[in-house]
Amino acid sequence: MKIVVLGAGGLLGRHLIEELRRPSSREVGIEVRGLPRAECNIADAIEVRARTAGADVIVNCAAFTNVDGAEKDEDGAYRANALGAENVARAATAHRARLVHISTDFVFDGAQPEPYDEFARPNPQSVYARSKWAGEELAQKRCAELFVVRVQGLYGDGGANFSSKLRQLVLDGKTLKLDGERRVQPTWARSAARQIALLLATDSYGLYHVSCKGETTWAGFTRRLAEKLAAPTKWTVVRSDELLAPAQRPPNCVFQHRMLALHDLDCMPTWEEAQDEYLVEQGSTR
Length: 286
Ligand SMILES: NC(=O)c1ccc[n+]([C@@H]2O[C@H](COP(=O)([O-])OP(=O)(O)OC[C@H]3O[C@@H](n4cnc5c(N)ncnc54)[C@H](OP(=O)(O)O)[C@@H]3O)[C@@H](O)[C@H]2O)c1
Fold this sequence. Notes:
Layout: E1 2-6, H1 11-20, H2 23-27, E2 31-35, H3 45-51, E3 57-60, H4 74-94, E4 98-104, H5 127-142, E5 146-151, E6 154-155, H6 162-171, E7 176-179, E8 187-188, H7 189-200, E9 206-209, H8 218-229, E10 235-238, H9 258-262, H10 271-281
Parallel strand pairs: 1-2, 1-3, 3-4, 4-5, 5-9, 6-8, 7-10
Helix pairs in contact: 1-7, 3-4, 4-5, 6-8, 8-10
The protein binds NADP nicotinamide-adenine-dinucleotide phosphate.
């Protein structure tokens, strides 16, 4: 089975490639090609079709992920997240490859108190969220053998986002301002990658919510991180609106993993279990 991963230079793309390249995958004949942006720009339909030729599975981890930046660059966000998603879906159909398209919890407005399952109605509230929702719809229109995987709160080694940098910021004793209000499920990129690797080997196509179990806030996640690292803690816990972010975020991002349960495919840990494993991998528990 030949798997092509687009957005291979990003946080999830790198973790997924590592997961798929484990010796056990090679033993069952899995061959993985990672294409970073420089080798395949998803906004270029011709390039996408040419670079994905011969794939049995395409995983689209490429996206315009700067949530606040998207408010000022709507065209940039839609070019990658909507048209790019459509280009990849068309290529998958042309090559008769199955497609894994990655999306986001931000498609929801976060107003309901209960966790969101895959059958809840999206109501995106930012440019990034609307462009990602458009990408889901376009991918669904263009490709039948499709997994849409919504992830959230990703962190991991080498990630450029704030949650990936938290461990080092805590170790450096930096003073942090942390959201104590938004309900989130911080998800180690390796846990999400394992779940995606499991899913793509099946033909149980559909829409899936993939996140670590349980719930916390980013302040709660950081408090536990600091305890585990026995690092001096310096932070202020604030309300979401005090962070003055240009893009609106959903106050409740908690997923219910109904589709994983229905297909008996759930291998996600709790956020605490994943955090522990992440810290062990980073060689930094005390
Ligand atoms: N991180 C999270 O917490 C989170 C939450 C919910 C959903 N997601 C979704 O998860 C997926 C993976 O995100 P991530 O966390 O791995 O983000 P990331 O680290 O920012 O990776 C995204 C990658 O896509 C690349 N890219 C951007 N535009 C591209 C284009 N036109 N063609 C090809 N590649 C392009 C980026 O390259 P450059 O760096 O060169 O721009 C980057 O390497 C995305 O679909 C994202 O929307 C992430």
